[in-house]
Structures are given as structure tokens and as C-alpha cells.
């Protein structure tokens, strides 16, 4: 592609790219027309198993495990890498047809690599049977957000001017995951600019929410969210600068973990901002169907000398027995969980309030947890400053890239207002830094003076919204601003019987709050929308957060750790 | 002091402050006139023991140990905290009279605290004798560079307008060290602005080099360097943004470790730059008389939940058995040490060349080490960019602070040229960041592709220089720019028989190089100047560097680890 004369008309570029993409799905992996459910709103969650394309083995491989359990089976030789990779490629193809969640598709490469892994390590030969020592993520398929460079494939991020420029090198994380034995097989859809909560662009179009296609799949890692919800992937990687991992995790009812910046290599990720920009950085992190899979990913990456792959890595090691934790949690000490019911800017909608209350009630009923009510200071100011940080250079660089092929901004980008923020000066940048240093002190005091292990709160004031209405990210962006790790965990879904809309007068934080609050019209429009909570740890103590989250998840969702 | 009407004449302020400082030294701790050596150039290294002020016990306590050994004696109850603290206060008072190395003196407070520690934990009662568990740094006196806030004392950093403003709170590190059981007893001198290699200012005057008072004691942590060389301190803390720990370590023949930024808490350190400035940050780190004392300090701080004290901390834990290290160094693997003979900008002077060669020869002769010759790329450009980073806002903020009391810039500040660098723009700042990201990739490749454990190189092109001539910091600043940990270790001193000056034509890197090279006039002017090497590790792998440095130090300096 790269050597051809480049097309400069965005519609022609997109049409050609979509046709190429479509060709990557084998004919016999296409869903028969009569098996395709046509009701626009209805959930398509049952289609992968109902459509008849998956063999019984493929159905089991893709349905019955989380990544941790599947990896165990791969290592034990219960399934070969090829069997696993073929099954997920097929199910990803199905998910793509249902929700338009993929961008780059390289199933052939993935299956070839899986075969090679099987040969190299002995197909279905476990370590105990005398095979070569297996790499930590042996044969595990992992999907990546489109912005991660994968050698030989585009990194267009849904911007037409970047189509047809295959990457010469793997991004740092792709290289690391491959070295750990993982198998890359597809990349997933994002919003144009990667700065909105709706994964829609002029190249690939919009990703739909598989639970309710009238609601957004979220963004900017929305393709990953839809793919994981449909189990077309068992472990995915997103990036998050204001909520881009956590918002789609919430929208699709999966787990999404935003690590502290730099703990997971981020080099070789396309960034539409100007080179060298600073202030608040995007963080790469896992999205999965279980909490422990987030831990699996982080442990594998943080334990793998990530600094060797990325000169910007922050080399906090994974330490299974953290001395400090032992010191800090002697036998009888309860986990101390701060609970923030709101962020003081937007009032949670009825299902969000109920979900959090339900989780807190379960924690209060558990003898190992102490719940401490807290308030989050200064979130409105912080939220404004976060916007200033992510638009330090204004919006010209976006327009310039769109203008190269004449593509228009997507609706959610226009609605979000990020394209009309002016750039700033070095002086104002320093003022932002000074305010953030003061906020960081205040939040450290909140954590330390309450001796908190984590903060539990909503991940947003609402569940997945109707399309192109997600314009606020105060609940998630706060933690990007402070660089605290945060994980979104599903706890329930909108229930027709209990989650009735109430009066907008419950929104107490002003006109913007009222407007957002009024979007919740009741359980009908929000049918099946997942309800999640967000758990926040302290900066760089990501391993501790994984462990606290596992403990709380086992209480809230009654799962074993 | 704070409540009085402030004086605005710098000379009056300084005179009053110096008089107050002088009063803090008890009459019977003053060196008798006949014991004071008057030759300006001569070493005063033997005066502390020769002057007759120290009792035999005080002489032993302050002479016979490094911090690690002394701490062992304190914990075993061989010496009480009071005995140790009194001894170091007295010897610090002597060092002050010889070299003018102190700023704030609070011996009374320190002795009172030591008594309290003895009472609380049982004087001379070891843990094994059933006492209360001892804190990690029980009773150990630690001196701090003047810029660290200590409650109740000024943080003037030698700038007249800040005199008479006692700190309301401890800096993060002071608070942490006190919580660990250490005893703070004095702060140490710095250059006006803390941006030169000569610790001279209009409040306290100049710190002299105890080995040769016609040579600089270095800066900006020069007071600490002189104090440690005279054993008026056993463990000190400096800060380093271009070499400010390592330069005085080199000048005074002690060990100085610049950690990766944020591993040691830096909040509550006076910074003369504008609030919120960014790009290259100062790092706090230990200065000591042994390599293992640097490790003692780092282990204590990194193992102490430093994040609880400082919202800007980078929470890399100290891990005694780093899994990765075990993986990377199986039985037979040699330590791989890259050796850079120059930085490609300034040619090392004859004693510096000899010192490095001597060290490298010892390493080559050791079966556990493999020496790999390397070149350091782009140091000249990096060095220019570092200056741009540390002067992002130009020099107005310095002049404004000096102007408040009418004080003139010190000679080394005028010579260094930092006061005539203009400020820059956000755009140029981003360009600096982009260039640095590219350099970081290049240096990562150097480390990774050569499979290096560390880089050995000179800490400067020269030894301690005559006063006010230290204007270049390319050898040290490189690692601030890249944020790699680096430690300076003494290996020898200038020797009259071998370190003869040679022709300036040996300086091959241009006129600036020739000019600097010509400063070495031969061993007479540089009598007793320490010769040191610098060992550099990879970013955030400070613990690994401590261990590699210990191994090399034991080979080069024939000491046990």
C-alpha cells in the first residue's frame, strides 16, 4: 500500500480500506443472514454462540475461561495455541460483523505464529512433560487498541491521512507481549482523535455496543470494549488519558485497569498531539473479563524488564511479597476503603447510585473491610485543568491532520468542545503544574490521613449513554490528572424494576449537572446497560490496587480470587 | 526573627545572620588560635583530631566508622545516641571553623532529641536486650543541604531575601528521616542560586575545600562535601540537577549518589526557579564516606513508603532480592561495564585520565567483570538542551530575588552565564522534549544492545578547580537530562610524581575544550585534589546500581562490600 500514490479524498480512502478489511474475514466466517438479529436496539450478546459458526470446541475455548484459566489450559496442553488462536480469530470476526469493533485484522499471521509456537514448544506438551520452558503468556491471544503500532499494519487510529502507512516496527508493548509468548491477531476501533467517548471515525465507522446498539460502546478504546464483551478477545490493551480504558469498560460491562503512567510501555503509540507535549500522559493498560486477568497482564509486563522496551518506562517492579504491604497489613487490619458517592460536579444517575450502594452494602457486611465516607476536593477545577493540559497546543494539529484528506470531525468530537480550546503558553503551563502539585498534596493527605487502601466511587455519573452524548469525564479524568491507578469493575446492569428515573431536581451541582442528569430517562432506553464501580489506588502502587480490587471484587461479585 | 521588621540591606542581613550563626557554636568548641593552621593552601584534614577539642571517645566515634558501622554500634548500644550526636556536633563545629561549610546550626535541638531517643529506647540497650524495636536509622546524625526545609530554621539557600523566615514544616525528606530515627543537627552551605560549582553566597560566604583551600569545595552541595570530608558528618543529603551532589563528592573525595528523580522525596526543598517549572528535575540523594552508606540511605528511604511523605515521589520499592536481577545474572555471568573515556566535549585532564585508567585496569584484571569500550552520543547537544531546560523561564526570577535586598550575583554565577540565558516558549519546550525522547531511545539502545550493567566514566573533565572556574557540567548533566542514577566514587588523588601537565594540543574537541584543558597546570596547583570516577546505571534501577557499584568499589578500592 505504502508505495502507491496516496489518495487524498477521505471517502475514497475509507472505502478502499473498508473493502480490504472486509476481505480479511474468510467467507465461511461470515454470519448467515438468517442468523443475524436485526432489531437495532436488541442485545447481540448471544449471537456468537447462536449463529452456528463456532464449533463446540471453539465455543468452549472462547466462552468458558478468563485469560488466567485459559493460559493454564494452554500451558497444560489441554488446548494448542493454534486451537485457541483460531477460535478467538473466528469469534473476533463474528464480533466485527455485529459491532464493527475491529480496525486491522491479521488472523493469518496470528494462526501462523500459533502453529510455530506449538511446534517450537511442542503442541499440547506441558512443561511437566519435559518440554522447553514456556514463556509467561504462551499462546495467549491479545487484542490491541488501534493506536499501538504493529509491524506491517496501519496505525491510522481512524484518521484517513494515516491510512496506508504500515508500521516498520512494533510498538514497545507489542514487542514485549510477543516476547512473552502472546499472539497478536487484531487491532480495535477508536474515535477520530481518540479524544471522545464514542468510537466512531471516517475510516472504519462506528463501533456499536453489543448489549444495546442504541447506546455507545464508549471510547476511546471502544472497539476493545465491544470485542471483549462478545468474547472475541480474552485480553485486550487500551490507553487512557481521561478515561479511555475505563469508559468502554463501563459501557461494555468488562474490567478495565488504567495503570500509573509508564508502568506499561507506551512508546510507539500514535498520539495525535504535537510531538513532545507534556503535562498529562496517556497510560496503557489491560481490559479483560475478570479482575485477575488485569493482574495477570500487569504482573507479566511489570515483571518483564519493561524498561528494556521503552525509554519512557517507569520501572516499578512487580513484587509478589511487598514488604511494605506486609508491614502495613498485620493480621487483623481491615482494608480501609474510602467511598465517594459523587465527584461534586455531576450527580450519579439512579442506576449508578444504586450500583454503588449495592457494592458498599456488601462491603459493609464484610468483616474484612471498613468503609470510610470521603469527599473528593476540587474536582471541577481539576477537570478544567485537565482539559487545559490535553489541549496545551490547541486544536490546530487535529484540523491539520483532518484537512489532509478533507475529512470532517465526527459528531462526538464536535459535541465535546475539545476542538475549540485555544492553546496556551509556557507560563500558563507552569501555573497548571503548580496547581496540580497543590492538588496532589491535598489528595495525598486524603489517602494518608484516612489510611486508605483505595477509593470506591462511580466511574461516571451515568451508564453508557445514547450515541454522541458523552462529553464529560470528570469521574475518570481526575485520576489521570493525579496519575493514580484506577480500575472499573462491573457490578450489575440497569434493572427495569428498580432503576426508575427521578426528578432532575436531585441534581444539585448546577445547570450542567441538571442537563446531564436529565439524560437518564429510565430503564427502557438504557436496557441492559452495565452498572460498574471504579476503584482507585495510590500512584505507582498498582500492584497493591490489584490485590485490594481482587479482595473487593470477590465480595461484591461473589467470585473467588 | 520572622516577626521583626525585615532588613532590606543585604550586608546588614548577612552580618546579623552570621553573628547568630557564630553564637550557635559553644565557646569551648572553638579552635584555639595556636592550633589553627594558617597556610591558605594547606590541607586542614588533620585539624579536627589535632586541635585537641575532641575527647578520645569523640575522636573514635567520628573517625573510625562509616554510617553503616556506626549504626550497628548505636543499635548494639556500644555508643548512646547522645554520645554520637554530641561528637558529630562538635566535629561539625570544627569543620565549620575550618571551611565555613554550615548554614543553620541546631546542635542543642539535636542533642535534646538524642537524649530523648536514648530514653525512649533505653540508652545502650540493644534490641536483643529486650528494648523496644529500634527504628532503622536509630540515633544516626544526618546533615542536610540548606535547601531542605527543617522546621524552625531558615531555608535561605544563601539568598539574603530569604533570611529570617523559619520553616513552619519539615521538608518531606526531613520528616521521613526523623521518623526513621535519624537526628538532624545542621544544614550546609550552597552557592547563591544553587546553580554553580562554587558554594559561595552573600549570606554565609564561601565554603573552602578542606584538602586544599585554593581549590573549590564544589557545588551546589559544597558545604556537605567539605563537612563529610572532615567527618563533621557521617551521612549527608544533597540535591543534583546537573551535578550538584557529584561535583562536591568529587572535589572532596567522598561518595555522592544522584538517584533517579523522585525516588528520594524532594518536596519542601527550596527551588529558586518559578513554581511549576518542568523538564529536568532536581533529585535528592546521599553523600557519604563509603559506598555502602549510599545504599544504606537509599534502602532506608525507598523502603519507607516515601510516597506517604511526598506527593511527587516515584514509588520504586527497594527489593532485596530482585527477581529480574537473579534472572539476569546467573552464576557465571560477568558484570558488563561500559567504559567511556571522554564525553566527546571536554578532554579529561591528566590526573582524571590516569584515575580512570587505573580503575579500568583493576576491573580488567578481575574475572567477574567484562569491560566494554563505548562512546557517549550527542553530549554537546544534550548539554545545550539541559541548559535550556534549567532556564526555561530565563533568569528574571533570580534577579528579582537578589534585587529585593540589593545583593550582587556571586562571581561563579556571573562566570557560568546562566544569568544571561533568555526564557523560552511552550513550542520550544515541546521541541526539547521531543529531542530528549529521541536521545533517551538512543541511550537505551546503548545500554540494552551492549547488555550493560553500568557505565564507568569520569565525573568531570577535571578535578576540583581553582575558585570560580567550574562552568561546565557536561559529564554529570548528561545523566540529569536522561534521569539515570549516577554515583561518584573516589579512586585516588593528584600525585606529584605522575600527574604532570601535558600539551593543550591533547584537547581535540575545539577551543572550549582547549581552554578548559589548559586549566590543569600540574600537580603543584592541584595538590591533594581527589581523583574520582563516575558509575552510571539505568533509570529507576538505582538498587541495581548500588549493587554493581559495591562490586566495582571493592575491586577498585580493595574494600570489602
UniProtKB/TrEMBL annotation, chains A, B:
One protein family per Pfam: Amidase
InterPro entries: Amidase_dom, AS_sf
GO terms of molecular function: hydrolase activity
Keywords: Hydrolase
Coiled-coil segments: none
The keyword Hydrolase is assigned to this record: yes
Positions that bind substrate: 194, 220, 241-244
Domain annotation Amidase: ranges: 84-545
Domain of life according to the entry: Eukaryota
Keyword Hydrolase attached: yes
Active site annotation, chain numbering: 145, 220, 244
Similarity section: Belongs to the amidase family.
Name by which UniProt lists this protein: Amidase signature domain-containing protein
